[in-house]
Design goal:
247 residues, alpha/beta, TIM Barrel, eight-stranded parallel barrel, 38% helix, binds phosphoenolpyruvate
Length: 247
């Protein structure tokens, strides 16, 4: 099977207002010729505007989370169907900031992943160990356990991505060594193959956690790294383009 098409996705988190859309436009203007699929996941408030602005460009728009239900009395939540209606094509699920800050479990992440499929969105499912788990020698067990628990069987044959994001690398400037990244990515690929057979070779496995223009080339060319999920460095077009061009 050929290698998955790389995906480089920017996660703007709770940053950005309409004034920030100029950065997304600058990314779209500069992205031509990239071998990667490129996406920006802004706050939900900006999805529709960004989708209009990026129409006709190769840059996709995504959400950062969704509710498992399609509609109902869930104040403040956003359904996968609503993200799709606003123009999103992908959605980040199970980010460690949601697992830790909103007590999201693997079971809930799997339910949200099903919701994304129901709405026609491509899920990017995040997994990753804490520093304490790594220091206790549990990184591989934690990550592969999250993959098994967060990915429902219904993903078979569907487009999706897994993002390996060590919690201790997010927003800290710290990154694992290349051999550490490769070890985890290989374990994720083996787990995907166990779960989905030959189709487990298809989803890209992104790395996320302090990816910057300066370290992107080494990370993006590591074995089994199929792209990146980029937080802070996706907020400025020049930095995000520097990462995209490192592929
Ligand atoms: C993230 O939150 O998904 C992330 C990777 O953040 P950063 O790039 O800022 O570490």
């Amino acid at each position: 099977m050929t290698a998955p098409t790389p995906l480089i996705a920017g996660n703007w988190k709770m940053n950005g207002t309409a004034a920030s859309l100029a950065e997304a436009k600058a990314v779209a203007d500069g992205v031509g010729g990239s071998a990667a699929r490129v996406a920006i996941c802004p706050p939900a408030t900006l999805i529709a505007q960004m989708n209009w602005q990026l129409k006709g460009t190769p840059v996709l728009v995504g959400g950062q989370d969704c509710h498992a239900e399609a509609s109902g009395a869930f104040t403040g939540d956003v359904a996968a169907e609503q993200l799709a209606d606003a123009g999103a094509k992908l959605v980040i699920l199970g980010h460690s900031e949601r697992r830790a800050g909103h007590r999201e479990t693997d079971v809930l992440v799997a339910a949200k992943t099903l919701a994304a499929l129901r709405a026609g969105l491509e899920p990017i499912v995040c997994v990753g160990e804490t520093l304490a788990e790594r220091e206790a020698g549990k990184a591989l067990a934690v990550v592969t356990g999250q993959v098994r628990g967060s990915l429902p069987a219904e993903l078979a044959g569907k487009a999706f991505a897994v993002a390996y994001e060590p919690v201790w690398a997010i927003g800290t400037g710290l990154t694992p060594t290349t051999p550490q990244i490769e070890e985890v990515h290989r374990a994720i690929r083996a787990t995907l193959t166990e779960m989905f057979g030959a189709e487990g070779a298809a989803p890209p496995i992104l790395y996320g956690g302090s990816v910057k223009p300066g370290n992107a080339a080494e990370i993006l060319h590591a074995a089994e790294v199929g792209g990146a999920l980029v937080g802070g460095a996706s907020l400025k077009a020049d930095d995000f383009l520097g990462i995209i061009r490192a592929l």
